[in-house]
Amino acid sequence: MxxxxxxxxxxxxxxxxxxxxxxxxxxxxVGRGFGSHWTYLSLGCATWPGxxxxxxxxxxxxxxxxxxxxxxxxxxxxxxTPYEDARTTxxxxxxxxxxxxxxxxxxxxxxxxxxxxxxTAYFTDGTLPAEGAVCEPDRGxxxxxx
Length: 146
Prior knowledge:
By secondary structure, the protein is an alpha/beta fold. It has 2 domains: about 1-45, no CATH class; about 70-135, no CATH class. The protein is built from 5 helices and 3 strands; from the N terminus they run αααβαβαβ. The chain has helices at about 1-10, 20-30, 35-40, 85-90, 115-125; strands at about 70-75, 95-100, 135. It has a 3-stranded parallel beta sheet with strand order 1-2-3. The protein is globular. About 15% of the residues are buried.
């Protein structure tokens, strides 16, 4: 229910059930095969009371912030948040730095000492990683978690 509340309040979803198949097909075109999965996960939004939150932030995204924004992208196949989205986000924001994790899957924290160190530095004193920095994972996608 928590995921649905975020999806329904932050996004604009069709309310007519007859258009969901086409909506899912179009989402696959940009979601590399996972678009329809996410579309159908949000099917409950068709009847969500009140529709999207009128107070949600829809831009502009290029405003100056009090501190630079650290964007982390996972380069090798994150179905929920594709790397290209991280690259686009870092370009849209006025003052952002993209840190790349050269690994598979969703999520970065706890996957790489390099990422964890960058996050600690950023949240402790605002230090950003070097421009173009790439972190390697500490283990492979099928290695056991210590």
